[in-house]
Design brief:
Layout lengths: L11 H4 L5 E2 L4 H11 L4 E6 L6 E6 L4 E9 L4 E4 L2 E3 L2 H8 L4 E3 L5 E3 L2 E2 L7 H12 L17 E9 L6 E9 L2 E5 L9 E4 L3 E6 L10 E7 L2 E7 L2 H18 L1
Parallel strand pairs: 1-2, 2-9
Antiparallel strand pairs: 2-3, 3-4, 4-5, 5-6, 7-8, 10-11, 10-16, 11-12, 12-13, 14-15, 15-16
Length: about 250
């Protein structure tokens, strides 16, 4: 249900007073902007898909994540994470203290530097529109290639290829590339895998491996790899992201 103008506490004119509020950009354009010109801890505020709601877009170590700022009609406040804000000033002041944000999968993001609204921002919107337009302006005989942007990062347990030991690794999925690192702060990945060579991604049903967590089994090339999440919710998120990356590339 759409909010009436009276119910929408934060009006457009009020929002424009926030230098890191970016109107008229969607998720895709926000990712391009903050990925290409931002750095770890950069964040911006944009309109959500529901009228009257907003989204915080944050750049992590290697990927970009999105978090809802939802209007709560019962209390006439906006909710972000576990906090509710009765006024726009309180919401803005919250970010002045460089808060940490924890995702549903327990990954912590530092809200370090607001990404300012710039006069040249329309260039990024044109890029996003051009990418979307490519899917409708197909010539005779051309095959449409779907645009797939997959971003996910976090710790998973991984079963070794040779020793069969299980170790905690930091995984990063970006487009068609799956990389894993010894830890989150590592600069070089221990391995990088091409999802275009992925044959399948499915839940791991091997009984002896259940003790390691909620398993995901994937076959990339001639290698079968097992990854384990610490919760069923985290397993479902990774499974969906990996399958989207595979389906978008095959």
């Amino acid at each position: 249900m759409e909010l009436s103008q009276q119910e929408k506490r934060w009006t457009t004119s009020q929002m424009m007073e926030i230098p890191w509020y970016h109107p008229h950009i969607d998720r895709q354009v926000a990712e391009i902007m903050i990925r290409d010109n931002g750095f770890y801890g950069s964040y911006l505020l944009r309109d959500g898909s529901t009228h009257g709601d907003f989204v915080i877009t944050v750049r992590g170590q290697r990927t970009v994540s999105h978090f809802e700022v939802s209007y709560m009609p019962a209390t006439k406040t906006y909710k972000f994470g576990s906090k509710q804000f009765p006024s726009l000033d309180e919401f803005v002041n919250h970010f002045a203290d460089t808060p940490f944000l924890k995702s549903n999968t327990e990954i912590r993001y530092v809200m370090q530097t607001p990404y300012p609204r710039a006069s040249g921002e329309e260039c990024f919107s044109e890029v996003g529109e051009h990418i979307s337009k490519q899917h409708t302006d197909m010539g005779p005989g051309e095959i449409e290639t779907p645009l797939v942007v997959v971003s996910r990062e976090g710790y998973l347990k991984k079963r070794g290829k040779f020793m069969k030991s299980v170790k905690l690794r930091w995984f990063v999925l970006l487009n068609s590339t799956l990389s894993y690192y010894e830890k989150e702060t590592s600069r070089q990945p221990k391995n990088t895998l091409d999802m275009t060579a992925c044959e399948y991604v499915k839940l791991c049903e091997l009984e002896p491996l259940r003790k390691h967590g909620y398993g995901i089994e994937t076959k990339i090339g001639d290698r079968v790899m097992y990854m384990f999440a610490k919760s069923k919710a985290e397993q479902a998120l990774w499974l969906k992201s990996l399958q989207t990356a595979m389906d978008g590339c095959n």
